[in-house]
User: Fold this.
Amino acid sequence: MKNILIIGGSYFIGRVFTLLLTRRKEYSIHVLNRGNRPLRIQGVEEHICDRNDPERIKKVIPPLDWNVVVDFCADLPHEVNNMINNLPGKLNHYIYFSTCAVYKTSVDYPKYEDSPKLSGSIAGPFGDYGYKKYLTELELIKNCESKNINYTVLRPAFVYGPYNYAPRESYFFDLILANKEVPVPSNSIALFQFVYVTDIANLCISCLANSIVYENAYNLSAEEMISYQKLINVFEEISGERIRTREYSFKEIEQRNIPLPFPLEQHELYSGSLISKTLNFRYTPFAKGMKDTFEFYKKHFFKK
Assistant:
């Protein structure tokens, strides 16, 4: 069997990816994380380690021929540097999960893979997140090229789906299921895009040791453009409920600290067509993916 090392595969995207991969029976699956949330999945070998500890990496990870490393959690350049330079065994293909937040803000939409990238931190609570992820991409490329390791960079847009720990769709689910009023921005024309976590997992599986995606970066983003009004319409469709909404101005949203999770004033649109054409992949329709997510959340996570 081929060996795969999954870094950070116990929370959201990595968890869904690992669960789907176990069904394939093609890989000997190894997961590296800090052990805070054990997977305990049959057929998956878990290694407990802080990726920032080079000596621990050398001690904990077995010296195998690694067909693929899939890195879900590196946020800083030194983190991929540590892994590539201290991983025991031989490495063929490194898949790094970056983000669509690496692109510069501009009026040119959608953003393609070759659109201008951030050249520094930007204003806001996550102002350095995208820039540091881009620097991490560059560090990955430099290391892989110097060591003749194949690499692929994947940049998801807004991710939704089962096990999502970010309070995005779940923020609305909690209000809807409790029959509470849902805040929405007034006069918002912002459009944004999503990608379903199961689509990400399946796309990543299709990338594993696949030479057609070597030395490339790809946006992961479904075609549908979503607004807050569209979002409410979909939530009504999937819940079967008439949702009570209340509009707030942008200023009121800021003053009241209303945690609306998506853009209010500026579009965030990304083309995910390159990878779908390359791998002949069709994204899940937004309403279907959100319906499955809603049912999963209602069954497993909603607290009455």
